[in-house]
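Annex B, item 7. Sequence and structure tokens for protein A, then protein B.
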Amino acid sequence: MSDTRKYLILMRAVQRLSPRMALFMARRVLRNKLAPRFPVRYRARLATIEKDLPALSGPRGELPPGLLVMAEIYSSEYREVMDRAREGRIVVLGREIDFGAPAKVDWNHHVPEEGDHQLWRVKMSHMGVLCPMIIEGERDHHLAVTALAKGALENTDPTAPGAFDAYWFPYAASHRILALTAGLIVARSRKGLPQETDQAVSDLLRHNVAFLLDNVEHELNNNHVERNLAALCLYFSYAESVPTRIAARLERDVAHLLETTILPDGCQVERSPMYQGLSVASLAIMAETPFLSGSLRSKLQERQAAAHRAFAILSHPDGEVALFNDSWHGEAPHYRGLEVPVGRVVLSHGGYARLSRGDDVCLMDAGPLGPAWNPGHGHADFLSVEITLDKRRLIVDPGTSHYNTGADRTRERSAAAHNGPGYDGYEPVEFLGSFKVGKLAQARLLPEQELGTDTIGGTFYAGPGKIARLVRHYPGRGFLVADLWDTSSPRGRVSWLVPTEWQISTSESGKLQLEQGNARAWIAPLLAASEDLHVTPSHWASHYGHRRGAHELLLRPHLAVSRQQTLLCWIGSMPPPTSAHAEGQALLEQLSSLVTRLPQESQ
């Protein structure tokens, strides 16, 4: 990519910032430059904030569910590896690094293959492993907690070059406050902690709260701010007192966050199913914050309930989230709770639709890339679907294996890597680096009233022309997918990813039969000729930093007499019914009518 094009993408991204965000972005840039240049002054600034902070008090009565859920989020993630942390062996994102002892942990550890985005280091800096060590650990765990907390306080410096992208990344500080506050309050409500351990954790907490008060990430106005504010709300909910100025500030900031980042249907505005799960937990903490006004807490409770419902809709029967946009398993809570209504469910503001019955599910992404002001976590997965049959994932999203700049990041965000109908050689979005976006695009859900109750669909206006997709559910059998391109060129394409746990064989009729243990599935193109189906090795990522094998099934559409391109594909646990071809043709005719009739601005 040329320097000129990079510059144009950057200018497009900057122009979409609100004046408020631009002001805070300028402040962030100045902080990054001035703190290392004037370290004594910046440390003095933080010390002044910390000096006036109230200490964390003990629990008051029965612990609320939001606090307990937050503690369990960190405990469930790190419970199985806390014994290793006791010895200085830190396990994050499936990778273990042995530092030799808790006191020797290097909080600025660099992982070479993570390049320009050191997520392993940032994730380690969350210090989430301390939560189960505090709550469930024995004496040797508590000694390790003391050493880890003291080591972090003594051996990290927010004025060091690069500190704001490492241990003192405000998002990481937020997770530290959430994990340590939740752990400390739960432990104090039970058997308590050794005095030295309690003091070491309390000292680290105060330092982090002072830092975060000075560094809320308003320049992003996204999930980072949500985590920032949840952390501050949790700490001050259990502080000995709440300074009036801080209570007023959090009232204002939480209200702004709720208004701008949580949509009416509960979807978090960045449209990541993973971050959706974290939003549910953060909103619960805010709704339990006693010093926020009653009216704001009531709104938080309502929106948290909607967010919980959206999280349920965006989860598969295996309890893990869909992998649309930046998402992976193991970061958000494993879904438990609300039952999703059977049949069709639509998140009209979030741009998602779902068909389900029993353990068969189809989810469709038919929304924007993300919020215009910060679409950095978006992927070009327009009209993509994920399909689970009998609780086994069959059609998967490529996922997110890395954030750092490189070929994997570029591929996993591209339209070509996803199964939404696309055009050869055409990418609808301009991506730069890890999170910057130039040209935007968005899909839209087709109106529910125009479709049968067993059908979901969406449209997407790409550069070469309009694209549309309908999916019809045949309960107990499978799903029929109908795709339409309203131009004859460039050539259309659909690329399904199937995990290699499924073994593929081809029948004489051109249907693909798949087996996984005693499970069977069929993928059958109903219009394409056999030479228009190609199966090649590929990969997907259900967990960050780890790629898994996949079969890539590339299908080419049929060129209709109308000069439109069309494709019908059956995906099910049984072969397609004899009526599938005729009913698919009816879906294509409906798509053609809708694409022609709906005004372009609704595309």
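Protein B:
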Amino acid sequence: MPLSTTPLDLLRAGMGLSQVKRPWYFYTACWSVNAQIELNPGPSTSKSQYLCGHCEEEVTWTQKGILCDTCEQWYHTDCQGIGDSTYDRLSDSRSIKNKIPDLHQLIQQVKPDIISCTETWLKPDIQTSEIFPKDLNFQVFRDDRTSGQGGGVLTAISKHLISQEEPELKTNCNLSWAKITIKGAKDIYIGTYYKPHENDEDSLTELWSSLSKVPQDSTIWLLGDFNLPDIDWSSEVPKSKCRFKEMYEDFIDRINSFNLQQMVKIPTRNENILDLFLTNFPSLVQCTKTIPCLGLSFRKCISRTRYFQGQVVTYLTNSSRRVCGRPPDAVINIEDGTVMCAKNRGIYSANGEVLTFYLSRLLRTNNVPIVIHVRTNATSNFWRHVNYSTLSWEENQLVSLIEWINDSSLSKTRLPPLIYNAFMKGEPITANIINTSKLLDRTPAGIAEIVQWGNMILLDFLTAHSDRHVNLHIADEKSKHPRITSNFTRNLIHTQEGKLWLIDNERTLYQSFFGIKCANNTCLPRRKVLERLLKTICVFQKPVVEALMHHLRKGSVFKTLLSLSASYQFLENNLEIDDEYSLIEDILDNRAAKVVYWIQNCQKRI
């Protein structure tokens, strides 16, 4: 089977995206996009140098480099063995065009009148209608970066407001201006600004020049990523650790000279406020708040994984079917109040949970909760405050801890009628069906739901996780069971914002491939259902497909998966990875090849 074929963007314009690698935030009417890995620029001025952590030579704007978010160290791509294709994939994953369904879900949730976006990574050849289709009803003003990679800003304003672009205010920095005209009130000038480097004084000089052109008798809203982490906004002074104190002090003086106040008081990246909202009429701003992305970035997951591993359990109690499943599982609280499900069902179930989590990340999806491994040890710092013997747990048992999705809006969800209809008829869902079917609510939220179901079906097929789809197995046996779409889907929860969370993944991989029930072939019908279910979907996210094909070409998806999990699960290298896992490798890689083969068949249907 040819695996070198370039993956098809089956979703067409506006539906191929990767997971959000950094949180997106709305500040009243502002949101910004960041990413897990900062790609080069490097410094834009000669006043400071960013040295490569390997060769200790300067990483400049004209060179390809990456910034590690964990150690905050720049590296040349050549020094890290990162080829052009990998660098380009990292670059492409940051573009807003690869995050469109998440953007549309956020719009559906927040219903903003004004959207201010930085780091769009858009080029002039990308149509605005690919990002903001007509039914969203926004007028969009863009300032794309015409050379190099990265950057780019846009301002989107609802068409029920009277707005126009203000090109005469443009200067030589990444900035767009639009004016909103309101009868009987001052015009509002909305600027979206992006400064790529902390010490980019040239960009700030151009910004001040632009601001001086704004009519004095007007309201100013200036929003964006100013990349100034070392301002203490409670006192409006540079922090003690500030490296560019003179530039910071000048920035504070300048915004005061324009009578601007900074409204964002909550950290927007780690502990820093990088995304600002400056206005000369603060009384118009009732509040600002952050809204995190729908799911954590991989970098954030790794950070939380390491954080959880260093915590202490303060409370432990029996689980229930409503919370965390049946005993011997448990519910625990760690010292910061985080609730986690503790599952003690043996090594294969524990490995199933953690490997499914990392497989989802390997495929660039972000809807499997964080999982970590711990071993029971009554004298360890982690367990010393609780007595797990009350649960009949023994020493040195492997337990998987899954972060509980603490969202009051969580609800059960049902199989979408469009997917059920395709399953029963044996006719796959294509882009044409999405555009024409009366069974689909063709709002951004409705389309995003189908996209998420497609990701889930792909992941469940790879891991042979049939528990979520037992209702389809029943429907298949009873032939068009009339109440199937009214039954809730197992091990799947839904947030008010439209996010699907895949929970209870212990019966995957080894358990689903070689479990006791499967040994006597009782699992065979369910496996056939999973294969039929996969063939109901011809609409997949492009980055998910690309990731799967990339890892399959490299050799073994399973070996890559083990390597990834071993990097972040400190117990992984000590686990009893026995000979049975070599069989898992063969089966998982074979199922991955089947997925790619099906996607190539889907291409022929377009």
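Comment on protein B: Residues 1-48 have pLDDT under 50 and may be disordered.
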